Predict the structure.
Amino acid sequence: LVNGARPTIKYGYDGIDQVATVTDPRNLETRYGVDGLGNQAELGSPDTGVTKSTYDAAGNLKTSIDGRGKTNTYFYDALNRLTRIDYTGTISTTFEYDGGATPTPNAYGKMTRMTDESGNTSYTYDGFGRLVTKAQTTTGLGSYTNTHTLTYAYDAAGRLASVTYPSGNRVNYGYNVAGQVTSVTLNPVQASGPGTNTTSSIVLLNDITYAPFGGTTGWTWGNSTQAGENKHVRTYDLDGRISSYTLGNPSANGVVRTVNYDAASRIKGYTHTGTGTAPSPASLNQTFGYDELDRLTSYSGNGTTQTYAYDATGNRIKAGFGANSYTNTIDPLSNKLSAATGPGPAKTNTYDGAGNLTTDGTLVVTYSGRARPYRIQNGAVTAHQLFNGLEQRVFQTNGGGIFVYDEQGQLIGEYNYVNGKATRETVYLGNLPVAVLTQTVTGTAPAQSTAVNAFHIHPDHLGTPRMITRPLDNKIVWRWDNGDPFGLTPPNENPSGAGAFTFNMRMPGQYYDRSTNLFYNYHRDYDPQTGRYIQSDPIGLGGGLNTYGYALGNPVLYADPEGLFVVPVVVVLGEAVAVYAARRALINVVRVGTTAAVVAATQSSSSTPVDRGIWKPEQPSSGWVCKGRADCNDNFPGNCPVNPKLRFAFGGGASPNLGIARDIAKANATANLKCQPKHVSCKCTNSKGDSYDGGC
């Protein structure tokens, strides 16, 4: 209930039952204009103004004019693959396939080169069509040019065996008979020069174990010299929810965090145990309160209490920090934040015609023709930014550098933009960051020596880094385990007095920019002070009713790694599986810029029927097993891909309880879908041969 009334969303339809209008609980109307072929020709949004689009004879997006009057023009080859995007006043982005002018068999059907404002990226493949190298050449504002190469190798079973990072560090993966990663080792960079030292092997993770139905239950830290630090442990309750995990060494100043749930599977609090005294485990305990729409309304922890209030559409309108109360003023004709009294500097905001923040009284943000913030001024400090054709930020001045991502869109390396040297490289287990690698260089050229330092990252249930420890002496060098849920509280970068340790990753998909105090979040920028984005969602209502909101107002339960739409992570057995599965930065899926956020390269004019049937799972030895199919919601214009193969997705789940098995299958199928779902169907069977066929 909001002000005693239930929020109401109204839908209007045209003569052929297509959605024509969506009216939110604040009575703000979004209008959809569809041409005679069913293409979205016009979008009228209270947040982003009017966007007009045209299409070619094959149904591919041809032009898009945003609310600023900026035009994007799209070009395709004979196979309807996106080849070029022209922007107003900005360098074009081009995509090359098959090897370009001299096609090579290994590259047939693959993207082999991308050229954009940041430079270019080239891809090579092996005889099985697997990615072998990705070489990112970044030209920083014309002053510096550096190339950073990722190299992938595979084992005889076709599994990823190793990734060689641009620095020369090589991360190797070992597997069990089920194909699950059981060990992660490191061959560090050569001490005396470029390349990998294959004679040196450092075990990062070992003895990685898994629950019967998916998520990891823990691992052994391979390079620790402290017995109490050796294990990272995760446990799950009978509903498949993560119930506890370790952060650091509970025998020192680390803790075991226990996750407590209410009857609606919302996290109602964290309790902590351990033997540390600075701080004491009990002082890290946290509690959370929610409204009927599952939005976070209260937080207690770290010696303070915070409260939050929302309007009917989910805009935060009030915040209480201890005895202090702050007000957010929302534009009555949109969901834009007009002003905020705090916490932190007061804000008076202005926006451009497409709903992008341009000033807030402190920051001045300038956008390119492709609607990305290429310059952000914070007083006397100015940060310039460049983005590649996948909408990833790969270059930033003033505290930034060059950024390199893996094929799931995860940040794996940060490099000095002047000399190209590694600053930090991050190692993942699936979607969980588990180690950060730094380098210590001694001596002077040409007799320099490089030593690699590996630190342990301890992630929470969302995949957010909460603690970093130093294996040498078990000291906690960085911790962020007792801050507010929206990320405003900064981490402690020197908790043990061992020296300042810089690590800028925040919630999944986010990177803290010291020059702006914003969190870069892939397609948008997040402001932890207000708990919302400074740009409207590029996919419009496809990401939720409030196009500026973060994580549906519940950052304890949800994450938004791409800055597009939230993914649930607690309902899936194990860590943030949904976050990892929802990543869409596959090498053959090219994003069309943020003004349209249409994945045009996945479009197909083929009318070949696609088998959508759900096959019955094999009878398990115990409990229930379900297979779910999530179908795209075609009630939202532009939500569903043209390619019929991408309009549905499957996912599985297992549990002793039928309802829980269905919920897990539903969550996994929804996470694998590339659009907002309409409904999810399930087929299930149990150890006795009983079956279920119906909705998830």
In short: The two ends are 27 Å apart (CA to CA). Residues 330 and 337 are 5 Å apart (CA to CA). The first strand starts at residue 10 and ends at 13. The chain has two helices and 52 strands.
